[in-house]
């Protein structure tokens, strides 16, 4: 509930995202045979999609978290560059600092996917640093935008857009406006990020930048990086070990990984950077920010490709981490309302817990198999609520949330109307959805 309260404080802020932007293509289809020309699968294309990639994924995630985003970097004078710019503008991102560099080729990555499995990735790119002239123009453009900015996020993909000179000058500019600078780094030389507020490498990047072997304690690695970069925080993503943060004031926090299933880690680091940035804008304590970012990453890696995580999804995941959080009181009802606002949900009303049978659970399973996208809220409308029944309902996977207090149920109904209402009777679930009369009865009872 403490972390959820911090999450509720996240409001719209203004972020400048500077980095290497690329276009991600997804060519999807089915493979049913091997080519007679060579021993390779034949992909029958069914769909083609394109999305901003690299630093663009940070932009998309920040937009999904409700931030206003300013895009700063370079594109080529080519179709991929124009598609990137149009994609950002369609999402209402500010592209005044997304500039064309003559002779530059916009990086393009085409992923060939068969039945949710990656077959091949085709990269079209030339890694080259920005020219001095282009850097000067870009920094001047950024300087004009900084009065409108709350925080700067740098997403370095080592494609040449974030040179040492550019990074140093950008951080110095940010200092002049007292703006935090959060960095997702690349390479082994973190000195170019010196003076930033936070650097977020993954474990392998951290060890390489610190020049340490794998058997070196990670605390030692973090201390080396803190000293060399003079940043306030080092945040290291550690795969199945979760995320850890070391601060210059001596504070160290670790949040264990909580993913249900790892499908694709593509873009997970971008998601963490976006979530931490949103937390920084809203002055969320580091302990809570770390858990929110970890939660966002756990959602992202459960999906194929780069996935845009939303605040309601993070809210729902936070509540699901502990099965005990299925049971809501009136004090906690705001958390439940937030989760239910953007998804269909069904209320199942139990008026007599003594009449619960195995058929009840069987019918819920059958109902959920048809409406798998529905959230199930069980309301126990009884004078005496037995603890053993509540524990049993909590352990049932299909039951998402449980409400015992009529006052709590009334507040939920007044804020978010359900898609369906079912009443458990002695011989089965009765659908009360058409009239919704039961809703009025519930509110009157409260």
What does the model show?
This protein is α/β, with parallel strands linked by helices. The protein has 2 domains: 2-316, 3-Layer(aba) Sandwich (UDP-N-acetylmuramoyl-L-alanine:D-glutamate ligase), CATH 3.40.1190.20; 323-445, Rossmann fold. The protein is 37% helix and 26% strand. The chain has helices at residues 2-8, 55-64, 79-90, 132-145, 164-176, 203-210, 218-229, 268-281, 286-300, 311-320, 333-340, 358-370, 387-395, 406-415, 437-445; strands at 14-19, 21-34, 41-54, 68-75, 94-100, 108-114, 117-124, 151-155, 181-184, 198-199, 233-237, 243-247, 252-255, 327-328, 345-350, 375-380, 401-403, 420-425, 428-431. The strands form 3 sheets. Strands 5-4-1-8-9-10-11-12-13 form a 9-stranded mixed beta sheet, sandwiched between helices. Strands 14-17-16-15-18-19 form a 6-stranded mixed beta sheet, with helices on both faces. The longest helix is centred in the middle third of the chain and has 15 residues, at 286-300. The model has no long low-confidence stretch (mean pLDDT 86).
CATH class of the largest domain: Alpha Beta
Count of β-strands: 19
Oligomer: single chain
Strand order of the largest sheet: 5-4-1-8-9-10-11-12-13
Low-confidence parts: none
Rounded mean pLDDT score: 86
Number of domains: 2
Q: Return the CATH architecture of the largest domain.
A: 3-Layer(aba) Sandwich
Which overall shape is indicated by the principal axes computed on the Cα atoms?
globular
Q: Can you identify the CATH superfamily of the largest domain?
A: Ribokinase
Structure annotation, total helices: 15
* SS-based class: alpha/beta
CATH structural fold name of the largest domain: UDP-N-acetylmuramoyl-L-alanine:D-glutamate ligase
